[in-house]
Every structure is written in C-alpha cells, then in structure tokens.
C-alpha cells in the first residue's frame, strides 16, 4: 500500500469546517484505492496566535516539512485588520510558510461550470467554456521586499530577480504547451522596472517553447479583459500582487469563489488551499461551500501522482453540482450544509 | 464675456479624433453661453517623441501651466511596449505632466446608463443604478518611487507620506459627504506598510467627517466586489496602482470604456481625459466613441465653475444615447462615426 503524510492546517473562520470535508473525501479516496494517508494537524494564523503567540509556530513548519503535501483551510481574522499597529498578524503565518517552503508558484484554475452559469454576475454567453489557469508568482515582489515606516512615511519595495521570474515562467510555459498553447504575461511594463524585467525574461524563455503563443497585457487592461472576454485566456502568468488581485477578480466568473481551489508549488513539499478567505461571518453556520477545499484536495492527489484518484474526486464534485447538492450560496431553495455536501461527495467516491 | 484658456493635448492613436469632437462641443458651449475659450494645441506622448525626441517637450508643459485647464486625448504606442529596453516612452510624458502639474487626485466616475445595460458583460439586474466615484491617488506610490535595474534584478519602490494620503483623502471625504455618504478605502493593509499608513491616516481624517460612513476593503476583495455588487459603492479611495487597475476594471460595468471621463486635479491647473487608451487599431477609422472625451470636457466645465454648461453637455450626451446616436461598439446595426456623434452633440447644445 502507498503511504502518504498530509499535514492539515485548518486555520481560522470557516477553514476548519471546509478542511474537515476535504479530509473526509481524502479518507474515502484512501479506502477506495487502498492507500494510507496519515494526517497530522497543526496551527496557523489567528488560531495559532491565540494559542502560542506566533502565527506560524515552529512545530507547524516542521509538520509541513515532514509531510508529502499540505492541506490548508483559510486564515485571517478581522480583529487584526482594523488595527494598523498590530505587530503580529495571521497573514504573517501564511506568508512565512510560503517563503519557508519555497512555494514560488501559485496555480489557480478558473472554470465556469455549465450548470452554475446562472449564478455568475456575468452574462452566460460571455463566460460559457471559460477555462483559465493563472500562475501567480508567490514568494517575491512587494509581499516580500524590504518595507518600513517612519512616523510620517511608509514604503514597500517590489523586487524580482531573473531567476525568480524564470522558474515560475517555465512552469507556466509547460502548462500552456499541454493546454491550448497560449500564455498571457500580465505586467505594467510601461511604468515598472520589475515589469520590464518580467517581459525581458519571458521573451527569452518563449524561444524555448516555440509552440506556445505569447501575449502581453498591461494589468489595467487585463482587469478589463478578464470580464469582457474571459475565453480569450488559456494560461495567465503574473507577479505576486497582480496575481492576488486578478485571480480574485477572475473568481467571480464562475459564480462562486467557493468553488475555486489552488496549488502552491516549489522545490519541496507543496500546499493546497481554497482561494477563498476565512469568511468569519459564516463560521460555525454550516453554510460554507466545501468544494473549493475538496477540489484543492484533488489537486493534492494529482501532485502525489494519483491522477486517477484526482479525476474521481472531480467527477464526483461535478455529480454533486449536477444534482444540486450545493450549499446555500448556490442553492437557495433547498440548501445542503457544509457537512452534507462533504458527506455526499465522500460516500459517492 | 468670460474668457478661458484651454490647452489641448490630442496625443496618439484615437486621441486626436476624440479631442476634436470634445473641442467642437466646447466651442458650441462657448457660443451658446457667450464665453470665449482660447485653445492652444501642444504635443505629448509618442507624437511628441517622433517630433521632438521628448515625450513632454518644455513648450507643452508651459502651454499647460499658462492655461486654465488642460484637455488630453490619449497617449501610447505599441511600438514602445514590446521593447523592455526603450529609454524614452510615451507614458513618461503623461506621468511627467501629472507630476509637474501636481495632479494628485484622479477622479473617475463610473455610471451604468440605463439605456446601455444590454451592452454590459454583467447582468442588468446587478448593475442598474451603479454610480461610483473613484478617487485614485495620482502622483505617488510605485509609479513615482525609486526604481532601478541591474543585469539580473529590478526593483520599484512604493512610498507614501502622511500628507500625500491626507490631501486626496480630504477630497474623497468631501465628495462622499455631498453624495451618498459612503467612502470605501481599498488597500492591502494585511501585507503592505504603505497600506497601513493609508488606513491610519484615513481613520484619523474620518473623525472630521462624522456623517461619512467608512468601509475598508482589501484590494483583492474589492476586485471581486466591484463585479459582484457594484451598487454597494459610493466613493472609492485608493492609491495609484490599485486605482489604475480597479478603475479600468470598473469601466466594464457600463458596457463601454468609451463612455468614461476623468479629471485629474491638484494645486494648480487641472487636466481632463478619457480613461480609455490610444487604441491604435482604431486610429483614423472614425469608429472611436468621442463621448468619454466629451464628458471629460463636461468635467472641465464644472471645474471652471460653469455648472450649467456642464449639465447641458451631459444632458445632450444622454439625449444622443437615448436616440442611439452611437459609434459601432454600442450600435452595431446603424453606427454613427466619431465625427457624426460629436457633431450631433455640438449642434444640439
Ligand atoms: C491572506 C493574504 C495575505 C493572501 C495574499 O494576499 O496572498 C490571500 O489574499 C491570498 O490570495 O492567498
Ligand atoms: C498610460 C499609463 C501610464 C496610465 C497609468 O497607468 O496611469 C493609464 O493607464 C491611466 O490609467 O491613465
């Protein structure tokens, strides 16, 4: 039997609830395919601050480093957001973990499910068939550059090296080559030095992927095009902050951010998490959609080279969608709870 | 008779065409209301580089400084975009002018015209009644911070001072107080020091405007909310780069970026321009929508304290929309040319 260690970081808000369902599904997969998954739980985010004083306790980092993959719920708590003077923040845990694990590429697939088009704020004819894979650089840029404060001023520095751009660009080119062969670099090369470096490196690397067509879009234009005509995109490649904004923007296309998984990969162990946040208002109400967490678990299975298992999870999620086994945001009339959706998927595996 | 000097910078691509129509409308206003507007033309952008080697020749800056207001078409040329090594770029002209004139606040109104809802990529019931005023800080942040390159690395610095935040924040609070009383600050205070400074300053200033309700949104969430529920917004306040992205994103709501004007104001003379770009593919074809330029001229009239005249221009634009006197993007069946739309509006004034 194949044996894998999975570190689970439930986090804050609805994180624990959706993580529970994803773990339930992974257990069902293990049983069906006769694998052994060992789950180890650890604290990160606001819950870790409350418990230990640190958003990323050393035990948590160790648990992740020892695992074959990491599954994360969500982190964040509004009590830190209104206080610009807070010294310790939940987000430091997530950013610290990304950096410590070298997770330089964040993959965010955006798909418009036929059955759910009516829930999108966009007109169905504009979005049907949308299938985008966003590669967001995750350990560089303004998130990790030097930053500081005086009483009267503040600064944040965005820095990139050729190597930081190249490694994520290669992943994006490879993905584009295996998909529809179009890579769109999003930058602000008419203003930023870092964007001009991105463009330079991507132009060079493009020569090694002659079958991939490369398009260049300024970030302001990209923010329009994503809504005007999302089907024009196949793979989008961009730096950390632009990727944060554009991938959340793109999440509206499918009608629910509660459906969107992500994978963060790098040199070592990889991490999988829904792109939604900790949504504290929904905590404990059983209304959170666990599908983003469950689809993140499917990406985790792919990463462990369990392609058939991953496919099985995706098919069952699709079946749940087709059967309207959905939480209230997508099924107002006869909503299922978080737990019911997770159980349906786990038992159908 | 009232006499005003207006500097006109037609710029590149469709800039000259749409500027022509805006000037035509201003001339009609002058005639009707018995004012004298003196127009002086100057070069900026790619056309200025071609002609003089500089994107912002000293004569242009002088013409602007001597004027009571500046009307700009659009700047930019793709021949500079694909070359990360270009030393001179059209955008330097616009950025240089914003800085030289101290235009620290860029106002971008976003309105969904009832009659045009069908053209929006968004469902009409989501957007009907949208009326947002975006205040984008325009002379600080990563656009103007220190930037640099080595062979292998690049950096851009985002800096803000308390004073830079405060002056644009006061304008936004005043606007909110005279509108629906809601100001939303968009930042990334969970990651950026500059955002925490913005939040701190806005929290302080808020006390002086007790009737204005203040909301805080992270930029990634704001990029979603603008599409999910644009009616929740009244005034949005944000820093330079976030404002660039979000205002272009918001432009899709109304169904056409060709309708959206902007005003850039500061300590001295103010500048008015469409938010669309130079759209080189459309140049010379007579298909560009001149309404954004004409509505920018209306904002210019407001700025010159000619409120009645501004209102008249807006009413006539509304009349043109209601009568389907529209360029091809909004009227596929029987499109009017740029010139015809401009003339209809000018003659109806
Ligand atoms: C919580 C926050 C720091 C994080 C980010 O900005 O990267 C989140 O928005 C995300 O996209 O994963
Ligand atoms: C042309 C470019 C430099 C400019 C900007 O980014 O400010 C434009 O996109 C705008 O929004 O006015």
UniProtKB/TrEMBL annotation, chains A, B:
Listed GO MF terms: 3-isopropylmalate dehydrogenase activity; magnesium ion binding; NAD binding
Q: Does the keyword Magnesium apply?
A: yes
Do you know which Pfam families this protein is assigned to?
Iso_dh
Q: Which domain of life is it from?
A: Bacteria
Q: Where does it localize?
A: Cytoplasm
Q: What class of enzyme is it?
A: oxidoreductase
Which residues participate in Mg(2+) binding? 220, 244, 248
Comment on bound cofactor: Binds 1 Mg(2+) or Mn(2+) ion per subunit.
Per its UniProt record, what InterPro entries does this chain match? Answer: IsoCit/isopropylmalate_DH_CS, IsoPropMal-DH-like_dom, Isopropylmalate_DH
Residues flagged as site, Important for catalysis: 143, 188
User: SUPFAM superfamilies per the record?
Assistant: Isocitrate/Isopropylmalate dehydrogenase-like
Q: Which segments constitute the Isopropylmalate dehydrogenase-like domain? A: 5-345
Pathway as given in its UniProt record? Amino-acid biosynthesis; L-leucine biosynthesis; L-leucine from 3-methyl-2-oxobutanoate: step 3/4
Q: What is any one GO biological process for this UniProt entry?
A: L-leucine biosynthetic process
Q: Give the protein family.
A: Belongs to the isocitrate and isopropylmalate dehydrogenases family. LeuB type 1 subfamily.
Q: What does this protein do?
A: Catalyzes the oxidation of 3-carboxy-2-hydroxy-4-methylpentanoate (3-isopropylmalate) to 3-carboxy-4-methyl-2-oxopentanoate. The product decarboxylates to 4-methyl-2 oxopentanoate.
Subunit structure, interactors included: Homodimer.
The molecule here is called 3-isopropylmalate dehydrogenase
Species, as recorded: Pontibacter mangrovi
List the lineage, top down.
Bacteria, Pseudomonadati, Bacteroidota, Cytophagia, Cytophagales
Whichever gene encodes this chain, its name is leuB
